[in-house]
Amino acid sequence: MPQERRKIKFVFIIFWMLLAYTMAALIWWFYELNTQNLIIREVEIKEIALNDAQYLSKYNAIIDEQKRNKIQYISEGLTFLLLIIAGAIYIFRGFVKELRLAKDQRNFMMAITHELKTPIAVAKLNLETLQKHNLAESQQKQILSNTLQETNRLDILCNNLLVSAQIEAGKYNFAREKQCFSDMINDCADEFIRRYPLRVFTKNVTNDISVIGDLFLLQIAINNLLENAIKYSPKEKPVDIILKKVENWAQLSVTDEGAGVADTDKKLVFEKFYRTGNEATKRAKGTGLGLYLTGKICKAHNGEIKIEDNPKGGSIFILSLLSDA
At what angle do helices 137-168 and 215-231 cross, to 10 degrees? Predict the structure, then answer.
């Protein structure tokens, strides 16, 4: 890392040196042209005979031409200057963006390695325990339940990775079918209730709300919102799941009582690899793909997603889709 920082610093120094040299060359070019213009004016004035009847008109013509040349040099110089500045800003911002993306990708690779390794290691340990020890039936059920929970986490993570890659490559075929959004949310919520028996969930789902969309993608979006609420809120705090119809919209809200999302991060959290700068949330496991993919899925269904502050503390994620009911 220190060697990489030195390389980046060296590139920045070279960039600014080249920019400074280009600016200096442009200023020198203007100075030389303007000086040459003044010399030519003086020479032309000296060549006019004092007794020439047209002395005054020729003198004024030379002065006017000198002024026009100066305006031309200034306008050309300013044009080049603006082009150079615009190009420098574009290159600089692109370079900074690439650096930020490279950093995000490195963080993502470290996070995804941990996220993949943990459920695999837990599942392996649980299976080895079952294989080596003659446990009571209740203990076996508990271990199998934990193993299933870890494999479900792994399944959600793999789905996020695969679908994200397919959507970005434009190779995912969206299904446009009528779906019962109410049943879908109940099924996803019930699965989380089974997976997290020690967590408190409250459901308030209006029945018979339908939408047009892709069943698989919508399930991913719902699961990501629920996973996000579980991940970033204390274990003793409830997660509220509400589905209601607001005019022509099916509106799903998932409320947690965690650390919340700062106003400056409320749009950024839907960017790829982004994780909020809050230290309490950064300590939680995550890859920065869940909310990004949820936003993509919502946009693909012509819906909208937003974050509001929970008065009790935490956040309210509101996903709205056009209702087909």
Answer: 120
Cα separation, 249 vs 168, in Å, equals: 27
Element (H, E) at 319: strand 315-322
Q: How do beta strands 210-213 and 249-255 pair?
A: unpaired
- CA–CA dist 192, 226 (Å, integer): 8
| Residue partners of 115: CB distance under 8 A and separation at least 6 | 153, 157, 285, 286, 287
pLDDT in tens, 18-69: 888 888 888 888 888 888 878 887 777 777 765 566 767 777 777 788 788 8
Cα distance between residue 314 and residue 276, in whole Å = 13
Name the H helices within the chain: 2-46, 55-132, 137-168, 181-195, 215-231, 279-282, 290-300
Radius of gyration of the chain (CA): 33
CA gap 122, 139 in Å, rounded: 15
Alpha carbons 104 and 291: distance in angstroms, whole number: 15
Q: How far is CA 145 from CA 138, 139, 159, 189, in A?
A: 10, 10, 21, 17
Quickly count: other Cβ atoms within 10 Å of residue 71's Cβ.
10
pTM score, two decimals?
Answer: 0.62
What angle do helix axes 215-231 and 290-300 make, rounded to 10 degrees? Answer: 140
159 pLDDT more than 60: yes
Query: How many residues in the chain?
Result: 325
**Tens-digit pLDDT profile for residues 267-323:** 888 887 676 654 444 455 556 678 888 988 898 889 999 999 988 888 999 999 988
